[in-house]
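Appendix B, Record 12. Input sequence as logged:
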Amino acid sequence: MNNIKKILLLYFLLSPVFLFSQQLDSAKNKHPVLRKFAAPAALIGLGLITLDEDEFINRTYIAEHRKKNAAFYDAHIDDFLQYAPAVAVYGLNIAGVKGKNPVMEETFLLLKSELLMSVVIYTLKTTTGQTRPDNSSNNSFPSGHTAQAFVAATFLHKEYGHKSIWYSIGGYATATAVGSMRVLGNRHWMSDVLIGAGIGILSTELVYATHQYKWSKRKVKLTGLPTFNKGTYGVYLSLAI
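Logged structural output:
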């Protein structure tokens, strides 16, 4: 295996895990826990393996070959690409392609997934104090960009994967690209990216698995009244749900 192939491994190492997850999701599997959590468990496990310096593929080994073969990389498209799968969900809604849930329900599910992921990522970043590969800060572990990208990809998969597997493949391919860019840009170790990906998927899967409050089934009433206070005009809004 030459150096170029080892760099490309950053991208392709993740892909079989996601495709395996989609195959489980599309089949009528009798084990829903396995179907939902096989991918994040595998990713987190791989991330833990790369922490071991004695393994054939470890984070230091990947970082060294990145320095030799991709030191020129300085793109920042991952700052925006991490949100692309979630934006796609709303774009599809605007285009008239409806997802599994109404837009309000989708938004509530996404917000809960983002909140859960953010709490886990922030807690780990502040407690572990892992130095980034470029020595810029001590909040490397795990990768927040990657976790965000996989929250968005899983959100797209949950809402549109039942319509076509290509929605899922597109979302996870985009998220995988974000993770790869974080390593190629020397912002994260491989372990940060793998475990961040697992956290992103797990957060969204947990939210969908436990979600019960159906916003779309509630009658929402918005009331607006003009107000006047000390010479200032305004509007009082009341939202009843």
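Residues 225 and 236 are 5 Å apart (CA to CA).
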